[in-house]
Amino acid sequence: MSTLDMASSGRPLPAPQLRLAATLWRIAVGALAVMPVGMAVAHRSSPVFLVLSALCSLAALAVEGNLPSFLRQALAALRSPLGIAVLVFAGWSALSVVWSEFRGVSVAALGEFWLAVACAFVVGRALPRYLTRQAFFLLAGAIVLACLMMVIELRTGLALRHMLGRRWNSYIFNRSFLTILVLMPALAIWFALNLRRGWIFALGLIAVIVAAMSNGESGASVVGLIVACSVFALAWFAPRAVSGLAAAAFVAVTVAAPFIGPISDRAIPTFIHEKLARDHSRERVDIWISFGAAIREQPFLGAGFGVSPRMRDTAVAQKVSEADRTLLAVGHPHNVPIQIWTELGVVGAVLALTIALLVVSAIRRQPHLIMSASLALMGSAAAVGLIGHGAWQGWWAASLGAAIAWMLAAKKTYLETTA
Question: Which range marks the domain in which residue 210 is found?
Answer without folding.
Answer: 79-258+333-418
